[in-house]
Amino acid sequence: MSLKQVKVTLNDGGVIVEPGALHFHKGNIVCDANIGGLGGFAKKMIKKQLTNEAAFNPLYRGVGEIFMEPSFSHFLIVTLKNGSIIVDKGIFYCSESTLEVSVASQKNISAGLFGNEGWFQTKISGTGTCILESPVPISEILKYNLDNERLQVDGNFAILRSDSVKFSVESSGKGLAGKLTAGEGLLQTFEGAGAVWLAPTQPIYKSISAGSISSLAAATYNRNNST
After folding, report:
1. Are 22 and 66 spatial neighbours (Cβ–Cβ below 8 Å)?
2. pLDDT number for residue 216
3. Among the residues of the chain, which ranges form H helices?
4. Are 122 and 88 in contact (CB under 8 A)?
5. Nearest Cα to Cα of residue 93 among 4, 155, 29, 157
6. Which of 99, 102, 202, 219 has its CA 20 to 30 A from that of 163?
7. Contact (Cβ atoms closer than 8 angstroms) between residue 167 and residue 188
8. Beta-bridge partners for 78
């Protein structure tokens, strides 16, 4: 593990950041509350309730350098060109002000009920660059570009997909015999054309964070040395 720090260089541009992420900045930079009027206020409050993102993200504008707080987290740099992506709730970190961060609702009932992602996720649209806080190192992320294909995964470790990719939840096999022989239950299913990014090792990191792996290792050690 090593500390990382995100640096943003502004040249008459703007960057939207997570509240509390700023470490320091240098140059002719001003901060905007970025509320967006009464209508914008309502939309941001709805976004906060439906996703794990902050309601109000500070907007820094001007010329200079901005440094975010040092962190042991992993970061992904994603560039969009008049496109839209759907990402896991809570992983948005910062973006150019040319991008819009909003709410995307599940278009499939099965995805909302059984997808383990909830009915709403974070949508990032437009042209510009955004930074996401990844649950795993970038070297452990598998990036697939579907060409009218289907991708099915057992678990909720897909952290990003193009808005053009259809997301649903399907049974692993057809009929009772298929379910029994497949040995799996419901699978997250991605279909169409576009990008899907997977973090297959994410469940392991969650287990480490929760302390279950260390507890299991300690229990095994104690059992082996209890004679």
Report:
1. yes
2. 46
3. 37-50, 109-114, 175-182, 202-210, 212-224
4. yes
5. 4
6. 202
7. yes
8. 130
Burial profile 42-51: b = 16 or more Cβ within 10 angstroms, e = fewer: eebeebeebb
Q: Are 74 and 136 in contact (CB under 8 A)?
A: yes
d(CA 207, CA 213): 6
Name which residue leads in pLDDT, 43 or 172: 172
- Whether pLDDT at 49 is above 70: no
161 has pLDDT over 50: yes
What domains lie within the chain, and their CATH numbers? 7-216 (3.60.160.10)
Q: Which two tokens stand for residue 13?
A: 């541009």
User: In angstroms, rounded to a whole number, what is the distance separating the alpha carbons of residues 169 and 177?
Assistant: 19
Contact of 153 with 111, CB cutoff 8 Å? no
What are 178's two structure tokens? 């298929």
Look at the block and give the residue holding tokens 């692993």: 172
Radius of gyration (C-alpha) of the chain in whole angstroms: 20
Full DSSP string of 60-125: EEEEEEEEEPPBSSEEEEEEEEEEEEEE-TT-EEEEETTEEEEEEE-SSHHHHHHSSS-SEEEEEE
Which of 52-56, 67-71, 139-143, 169-173 has the lowest average pLDDT?
A: 52-56
d(CA 95, CA 43): 18
CA–CA dist 197, 21 (Å, integer): 25
Amino acid symbol at 144: Y
